[in-house]
Design goal:
The protein has helices at about 5-15, 25-35, 40-55, 70-75, 90-95, 125-130, 145-160, 185-195; strands spanning about 55, 65, 80-85, 105, 140, 165-170. It has about 200 residues and is α/β, with parallel strands linked by helices. The protein folds into 2 domains: about 5-55, Orthogonal Bundle (Helicase, Ruva Protein, domain 3); about 55-170, Dna Topoisomerase Vi A Subunit, Chain: A, domain 2 (3-Layer(aba) Sandwich), CATH 3.40.1360.10. Helix 1 (about 5-15) crosses helix 2. The N and C termini lie far apart (about 70 Å).
Length: about 200
């Protein structure tokens, strides 16, 4: 029986540790790089090293950036009266694509008792000083509509409600182009709760 060289196996195992990469995909990526030009493998390795060496966490919103404060927090044209609280930097990018022009606060996770993640493991307490300045008029809870996202939103709402800042939650319901017959009960009930006058 043929054996896989140790260096090939090491890269397969490294790829498998990445989220969303199973054994077959890890093998395909490894063998692709094995046959790719050396410059392509070097560029990938350099990009991975640069990711670790040249990124920082923004001291204000906790976004991943090359500078701190990040470009969003440094932009004077942003609406500083509104902060959207999101779970991770990818959620922030999604809101940016939707032309949100306020500021952000990135939690880097959600409350998840099953994974031993409590409020202390998230960037929740760092939000409070940002709200006490009086500049922020509204906080948008933009966590995902999962059980953990809802629990996190409820916790933050209870924490900041006494500060007198308006707290809103992103709407949930049917996606544009979705069919009623394929929607689950929770999505439909939320769509009904969030209905607006036509």
């Amino acid at each position: 029986m043929a054996t896989i060289p140790k260096v090939v196996q090491n890269l397969i195992e490294a790829f498998e540790r990445l989220p969303g990469i199973g054994p077959k995909t890890a093998q395909r990526l490894t063998y692709y790089l094995l046959h790719a030009p050396k410059e392509e493998a070097e560029a990938l390795a350099k990009a991975a090293l640069d990711l670790k060496e040249k990124t920082v966490i923004c001291e204000i919103c906790f976004n991943i950036s090359e500078t701190s404060p990040c470009p969003v927090c440094s932009d004077p044209s942003r609406d500083r009266s509104v902060i959207a609280i999101v779970e991770d930097p990818l959620d922030m990018l999604a809101l940016e694509k939707a032309n949100f022009n306020g500021l952000y606060h990135i939690l880097h996770g959600v409350i998840s008792p099953l994974e031993n993640i409590g409020p202390e493991e998230l960037r929740i307490r760092e939000l409070l000083p940002r709200l006490k300045s009086g500049e922020v008029k509204e906080v948008i809870l933009a966590t995902n509509p999962t059980m953990e996202g809802e629990a996190t939103a409820m916790y933050i709402d209870r924490l900041i409600s006494p500060l007198g800042v308006k707290v809103t939650r992103i709407a949930r319901g049917l996606p544009v182009g979705g069919d009623l017959e394929y929607a689950d009960e929770t999505t439909l009930s939320r769509a009904l709760e969030g209905r607006k006058e036509y």
